[in-house]
Amino acid sequence: MADATDRPSHALFPGTFDPPTFGHLDLIRRGLALFDRVTVAVAAHPSKHASLTAEERIALLEAITADLEGVVVTRIEGLVVDAAEQLGCSQILRGVRSGTDFDYEVTMARTNRELLPRIDTVLLVPDAPYAHITSTLVRQIAGLGGSVRAFVPAAVAEVLEARRPGA
């Protein structure tokens, strides 16, 4: 009989990734240290207006994770637990930068566990250089014409820079 350590593990890392940041990439890499596979799931959030299309976000995530074995990028709609079930994931991977993030993520983890008890949520704290980076901050800097290269991979910065007025 195989024990739990013999079972491949598969985590779902959901988010809007608008745009993908070094913080997201940090969590993906660290997720691969914990799980055999990480599926990065680009979701549409009903209360958010995306600056990049889902297709653009997927293409950027595929580009910045191309060298990471065990990462797949896909699009999901609806409940994250339903996507986890459909994709065969046993864990949901999420990042927490602050106490506010923690409170929100714990509420979501408990709710997801109520909806689908076999799914656990793993919360990771980002490495210090990435702890302050948010997609919202990156969008604001880019929208005001500032350089975002310290916050996002080069492929992402190029797309955002090309959208600047007068670019």
Topology, element by element:
Layout: E1 10-15, H1 22-34, E2 37-43, H2 54-64, E3 71-76, H3 80-87, E4 91-95, H4 99-115, E5 120-124, H5 135-143, H6 154-162
Parallel strand pairs: 1-2, 1-4, 2-3, 4-5
Protein name: Phosphopantetheine adenylyltransferase
Site (Transition state stabilizer): 24
Enzyme class: transferase
Describe the structure.
- The protein has one domain: 3-Layer(aba) Sandwich (Rossmann fold).
- It has 6 helices and 5 strands.
- The chain is globular, with a radius of gyration of 16 Å.
- The model has no long low-confidence stretch (mean pLDDT 92).
- The chain is α/β, with parallel strands linked by helices.
- Strand 1, helix 1 (22-34) and strand 2 (37-43) form a beta-alpha-beta unit.
- The record marks 24 as: Transition state stabilizer.
- It catalyses: (R)-4'-phosphopantetheine + ATP + H(+) = 3'-dephospho-CoA + diphosphate.
- Pathway: Cofactor biosynthesis; coenzyme A biosynthesis; CoA from (R)-pantothenate: step 4/5.
Query: What is the assigned CATH homologous superfamily?
Result: HUPs
The helix/strand series, from N terminus to C terminus, equals EHEHEHEHEHH
Strand order, sheet with most strands: 3-2-1-4-5
Number of self-contained structural domains: 1
In the predicted model, the low-confidence regions spanning at least 5 consecutive residues are none
Number of strands: 5
What proportion of the residues is helical, as a percent range? 40-55%
Query: How much beta, percentage-wise?
Result: 15-25%
Give the count of helical stretches: 6
Cα gyration radius (Å): 16 Å
Q: Give the biggest beta sheet.
A: 5 strands, parallel
